[in-house]
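Entries read chain and fold; for instance:
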Amino acid sequence: MKIGITCYPVYGGSGVVATELGKALATRGHEIHFIAYSMPFRLENLSENIFFHEVDVNTYPLFEYPNYSLNLTSKMVDIARYEELDLLHVHYAIPHATSAVLARQILAGEGYKIPIVTTLHGTDITIVGRDPSFKPVVNYSINESDGVTAVSDYLRRETFCRFDISRDIQVIPNFIDTTRFRRQNKEHFRRAVCPNGEKVMVHISNFRPVKNATQVVEVFHRLRSHGLPVKLLMVGDGPERAPAEHLSRELGVYEDIRFLGKQQPVEEILSIADVFLMPSGSETFGLAALEAMACNVPVVASNIGGLPELIEDGVSGYLCPLDDVDAFTDRVLAILSSDDNLASMSAAARRRAEHFDQERIVPMYESHYSSVVQRAEALSV
């Protein structure tokens, strides 16, 4: 199939999943056309059947704000028409699904039928969806899509709860390439970070307020207060990085923390980690947690959203009440203060991650595509 994929090309879960899906589909023989305003973060290079089409955002004195959604619609029409796409797969309800629906209508006027699959990732429903002014657009975009998927059962339930959805939503969970994400021998790196044999705690996020990065620093400070020899690696960047750095200086633990910024080979960093901390206030799946688990790193996370569908509490990690810094500290201590517990949970984390291997999940998307295309063809007869 020839598939057009649109996503936010930034450092975040939805863009990562969309990009990795496109790459996996390309290895399975499909022709993939990424349509976005910049090169997706995880799209390191283009291959024989992966193409990138940049959406130009034009500015005119008449428009106070550039209208990306209309530029995206025009680019979708252009690429679908001239590349003869079989399907548009958009990640995020607005504006991507909205633009795709409009593009489909324009193409239909030319006699060109192209079905749309929309994948819901989370904040398009749980955060953007809270704004009543967007509700009619989100309702319309989802209901007008030819196929809709959600990355967790939690997100599926939330979508039906928050919006007036009249169609089915199929749950296809996020996935990972377990051949890439696996624990590697990085002892030279570990010795550089932990010259005295300290344990390593890692946090990876886009440092938005919902990720609670300052709580990570608070937990780390309490671990140090308990006398635990541990170092902290903070990976990623965003609005809460500066407050987290400031807090670490106030608490006197800055010298034991490395703020690494955005990193591409995160599996190398995860290969020296002993525990992954995710105190998020909202997670519809938790892709960063899955990447950690695939590298044999147990996860201590908030008991919210789709995380209970991923993490087996007390087996491959721990789930804690939201904002309960004491609970997070106790659970990390339970892992790092017992070599037996660490070894058991590390192995369990890897086993759990293998349930979400891309070889299991990507065929679910292919099956969904086929059913959507067949249904669209039947309706056009």
Summary: Residues 219 and 235 are 16 Å apart (CA to CA). Residues 187-354 form a domain with the Rossmann fold fold (CATH 3.40.50.2000). The chain has a mean pLDDT of 92. The first strand starts at residue 2 and ends at 6.
